[in-house]
Design goal:
CATH architecture of the largest domain: Orthogonal Bundle
Structural class: mainly alpha
Radius of gyration: 18 Å
Largest sheet: none
Mean pLDDT: 92
Number of strands: 0
Number of helices: 7
Helix content: over 70%
């Protein structure tokens, strides 16, 4: 997907009009339409505001990752990153164990 396609898809999923998104980022709905049609590219600052308004990362909007990470998850990841290495390792071990258990339950349920 292109940058514009990502914006359009996410905006529609959130039930926002182009005008609504424009107001949220400090521009007009017409400009959002141009972004969505890939006619113009926003500045990095505006792209960041669009990502914030749509609650995704700039990397996702740019197509650099296919993983859509919502704001709550991103905040948690950032909080984990701030922990000491020992605490971070402990948290990740718990997450790994949970994922392993979930995969095991799913495998046996099929």
């Amino acid at each position: 997907m292109t940058f514009g396609e990502h914006i359009a898809t996410l905006r529609k999923r959130k039930g926002l009009s182009q005008s609504d998104l424009g107001k949220a980022v400090g521009t007009s709905g017409d400009i959002i339409g141009k972004y969505e049609r890939d006619e113009v590219k926003p500045s990095i600052e505006v792209a960041s505001k669009v990502a914030d308004a749509l609650e995704v990362s700039v990397d996702f909007l740019l197509g650099k990752t296919t993983t859509e990470i919502d704001k709550k998850t991103m905040k948690r990841l950032m909080d984990i990153q701030k922990l000491t290495e020992k605490d971070r390792d402990h948290v990740l071990e718990m997450v790994d164990a949970f994922i392993r258990d979930r995969k095991t339950k799913t495998a046996y349920a099929d």
